[in-house]
Amino acid sequence: MPENIATSEAGSPLYLRVRDQLAEQIERGEVTANIKLPSERVLAERFETTRVTARLALAQLEAEGRIYRSNRRGWFVSPPRLIYNPTEDYSFSDNAVTQGRLPRTETLEVRCTVASAWLAGKTGLETGDPVVLVRRRRYLDERPVLVENIYLNSRHLPGIKGFDFNRSLWKLLRDQYSVDLVQKKIEMFPTALVDPQASALSVNAGTAGLCVNRCSRDAAGVFVEFDEEFWLHDTLSIQVNVA
Amino acid sequence: MPENIATSEAGSPLYLRVRDQLAEQIERGEVTANIKLPSERVLAERFETTRVTARLALAQLEAEGRIYRSNRRGWFVSPPRLIYNPTEDYSFSDNAVTQGRLPRTETLEVRCTVASAWLAGKTGLETGDPVVLVRRRRYLDERPVLVENIYLNSRHLPGIKGFDFNRSLWKLLRDQYSVDLVQKKIEMFPTALVDPQASALSVNAGTAGLCVNRCSRDAAGVFVEFDEEFWLHDTLSIQVNVA
DNA sequence: AAGTGGTCTAGACCACCAC
DNA sequence: TGGTGGTCTAGACCACTTG
Fold first, then answer.
1. Tens digits of per-residue pLDDT, A151-162?
2. Which pairs from B70-75 meet CB under 8 Å and 24+ separation?
3. Where in this chain does the record put each HTH gntR-type domain (chains A, B) (predicted)?
């Protein structure tokens, strides 16, 4: 049975009225976190319109962070955002568990390489200085939510390449090297995810994301690590306190 | 003369190849900041495709923050992002000028009201406590880039309603009330802009944005102001230092 | 008045995923 | 194998902006 939309007052475009109806159903809890929405074809029929218009409505809800898509499996309701304070020493896993989520970390790659001009500019290293690159992917409730490139100062952290990176990096540095990260420079901006990050997260190129870069030094001001994080835009809320 | 795209290897979807060609032209400087792109119909013809596909390519570049649209006037190349540190006492104007931009502030509304339950939860006020609401819109080079709702503790700031809000709020508090904002709690998350913020910025509902909330207190911990900012996503880069 | 983006129709074929 | 989203065509009319 079609919804009473196509026949309603046309005060706003059809795709926004479809959006509002879907949003209402989500808020009423008729569909809840991680539940699949009806298919685009079914929605188009239900609202007596075409797939193009149904997709416009879905794109709106996706942009607002209310729903997300998974591969070609369909559209799902987004769970609450993870609260994340990038200024603090940080265990992704502890933080997720505290918020009632199931975290998982995959180490995609560990490789010795040298600093690019871009990295040198960000860190104060010289171009060509040795660094260890660690690429990780992190999940919440089995949904991949971020990929990151970590560049470690290998001169300052001998033997770092041999450790297990599926655990908290901050704890590793503290326990194995007695390094405290006390100086941080953090940069954040919203942007679309493109390859290779989009592929790594199994989303389409152009999916909205948040890029978080963090440059950390020890108490003496020596560069320790640079972290480049690519988050799906609907999965996090940044919180920072200044005292 | 059509670009050599439709005939090129179809390793990726057409709209991504169109995106790449346009991105290249932007990077080569053939079109630069605030320059208008060819119309969607011209692009469709040039790349031997339809408007729908051309719009997909443009939407990609918009999501990446490379271009933006202005009403029904066309698509324009985005200028560099404004670097913004929300943890510091902050003059929008000074910051913009330092970065070579032309700032402007409009006060849309100044109104006495009372704290909602939502605001009470964010600030520690009681629901119903008196506050002054200031709504402002801010421009960079005559492009509106953010709207904000400022809630001021009117008990703590007698007579605040009478001042000029087109200048820096922080300077106003310092000069007129000798208040230093030393405790701040900041929250940021990417989301789509919807009405009324979208209308206030003359963009379509669903345009990508960044919401920045800031709760500031004085040295004694008394609530002074809560600021709710809605930025266009391609206009800013957040930078924070932790020492 | 002409041109622009905004919205919408009614289809089509493809790649991938689950059954 | 059938259903899903992903991509794409070839048009249409409308609202608004600009000359």
1. 999 999 999 999
2. B70/B143, B70/B202, B71/B202, B73/B36, B74/B36, B74/B37, B74/B39, B75/B36, B75/B37, B75/B40
3. 12-80
